[in-house]
Amino acid sequence: MAKYKLEYIWLDGYEPVANLRGKTQVKDFDTFPSLAELPMWGFDGSSTRQAEGKSSDCLLKPVACYPDPTKTNGVLVMCEVMMPDGTPHPTNARATILDDPDAWFGFEQEYFLYQDGVPLGFPAGGGFPPPQGEYYTGVGYKNVGDIAREIVDTHLDLCLEAGINHEGINAEVAKGQWEFQIFGKGSKTAADQVWMARYLLLRLCEKYGVDVNWHCKPLGKDVDWNGSGMHSNFSTKYLREVGGKEYFEALMAAFDKYKNEHIAVYGPDNHLRLTGLHETQSIDKFNYGVANRGASIRVPHSFVNNDYKGYLEDRRPNSQGDPYKIASRILQTIATVPTK
Ligand code: ADP
Ligand code: MN
Ligand code: MN
Ligand code: MN
Fold this sequence. Notes:
The protein has helices spanning 141-144, 148-162, 189-206, 237-241, 245-257, 259-264, 270-273, 301-305, 323-335; strands at residues 2-11, 20-29, 41-44, 57-67, 74-82, 104-115, 118-119, 166-171, 177-185, 211-213, 230-235, 288-290, 297-299, 312-314. It is of the alpha+beta class. The site of one manganese (II) ion has 4 residues, from strand 6.
């Protein structure tokens, strides 16, 4: 028997963006526990905007677990929040995702590292560093500073050790801005892993005195500095294996029809980012285009060349979006389009 440290992690009830919360319980196991062996737990929902004080118990239901690479016998336990009667809590967006083991998602999470209220590498007393140009995929102190590289490389290692399916990382267009990409098969897999990767990044940054700023336009819309997105790449078995131009056009008509419902869950303040500039479409318009980075949905060349089969990239979700809500909405819209 060994003492395992189980870090139960969940999303709180703050709006418009939920915070990650976590607390530890210690339990004895012979070997690394499986998901089925992890017990339900609870917390005080009145402290997380998930319950009234007089009836404050919420339940934590483990839904995914990963080895915690920073601890001996540590387990990172992603949880759904449930009501005392066992039904999903209203804040539990994961429970709204259609079950589909053959739905695949790839999320490209952009974010800024912040220190003392400004992006890492910006002058402390105010003002701006040299304009954007050399920062994207850049190297060297003048482009990335002295600690960002250590943070993003350590984060990548932590995620890989935890079994998170990172596909890559890169320095982004603005100074202090970075990206990681996560791909997963199964309608909830990539979304679970994005939340766990966000958790690991936030926790890692604590010891550097650095915060992660997930806002989609932290420097505002009036300056020539990029915002942050979370491009959401998706495919279903039907899209990958059958597809076809007719189905694709019906699917895009459905995305157009539900554009407001999509924008509603694609992250707050997105009107600051989806302006039609900086490789974005305006927030009130829907369009798609082959290899078009100014479109709402980018259709890869490979998709068209392969008889309209493969994956599509929804470029509208922003960096503060909840991947659970995004995956849920995309699959709901897909489900409205008949397949043959
Ligand atoms: P870019 O920055 O040019 O948009 P990236 O390489 O950053 O491209 O992201 C492409 C994303 O597409 C990756 O996250 C990848 O996992 C995802 N992807 C690739 N194939 C599929 C697929 N069949 N279904 C869903 N997502 C996919
Ligand atoms: Mn990318
Ligand atoms: Mn990017
Ligand atoms: Mn992209």
